Amino acid sequence: MIRRDSVRRPPILPTIIVALAVATMIALGIWQLGRMSEKEALIARYQAAASDSAEVPFPVDDNAADSWFRRSRISCGRVLDITTVSGTAASGQKGLAVRATCTEGAFGVPITIDIGFTREMVTPQWEGGEVTGVIAPGPRLVADPPAAGLQPLAKPDPGDLPNNHLAYAGQWFFFALTALVIYVLALKRRGR
Predict the structure, then answer these.
(1) What is the pTM of this model?
(2) pLDDT of the residue at 123
(3) Would you give the end-to-end CA distance of the chain in angstroms?
(4) Longest Cα pair distance anywhere in the chain, in angstroms?
(5) Tell me: the pLDDT tens digits for 42-64?
(6) Bridge partner residues of 97 (DSSP)
């Protein structure tokens, strides 16, 4: 017969804390699974937008994401800055995207335009003008055709948007399992 006082009960407060932490981690994993479905629907919507050839006004407000991957046209009235960032040509070649910041009209809101691709380290001269292209996240306009005698850039692709939610869900479930295993091992050690 086992004496009642020789069996140790788990400590109440640490058990409650671990149970709440594990429940929170499981809830976060389930939430990430829901986000995965939402992101898949968003990417599908962007892919449909990318196949639409109708132009939309370039977004200058907080609803920019509704216009991503659509065609647009900008009249760059004044070039504020030209720089380069890493980029990919339409041919798949890696190099530099030439990025201009300009305003529509004399005193408009600054707009970012990727005017073309180069492998040269020299920033080209560009005085602005009308540019057509595809709205990319940022938002920025990726010129199509390119400006300033540059090569065409790869078109923005909705498939490039990250959808890591399944991996995040797996991490949360793994963290919950790890917390449970560590707690059970701690209780066994305490019982010895």
Answers:
(1) 0.72
(2) 83
(3) 19
(4) 93
(5) 888 888 888 888 899 888 766 67
(6) 85, 117
Token output for 50: 């990318």
Q: CA 39 to CA 47: how far, in whole Å?
A: 12
**110-118 and 140-143 beta bridge pairing:** parallel
All structural domains of the chain with their residue ranges: 10-38+163-191, 70-155
Kindly indicate the confidence band of residue 108, based on its pLDDT and cuts at 50, 70 and 90: confident
Q: Record the tokens describing residue 162, joined without a space.
A: 């990250």
The overall average pLDDT reported for the chain is 89
Give the integer Cα–Cα distance in Å for 175 and 18: 12
User: Tens digits of per-residue pLDDT, 114-147?
Assistant: 999 999 888 888 998 999 999 998 889 999 999 9
Contact 135, 151 (CB under 8 A): no
Q: For 177-190, what is each residue's pLDDT tens digit?
A: 999 999 999 998 88
Q: Where are the alpha helices (DSSP H) in the chain?
A: 12-50, 165-191
| Nearest-angstrom CA–CA distance, 137 and 67 | 9
Residue 63: the pLDDT is 67
Here the contacts of 63-71 (C-beta below 8 Å, separation 24 or greater) are 64/135, 64/138, 64/139, 65/137, 67/135, 67/139, 68/135, 68/136, 68/137, 68/139, 68/156, 68/158, 69/134, 69/135, 69/136, 69/156, 69/158, 70/134, 70/135, 71/132, 71/133, 71/134, 71/135
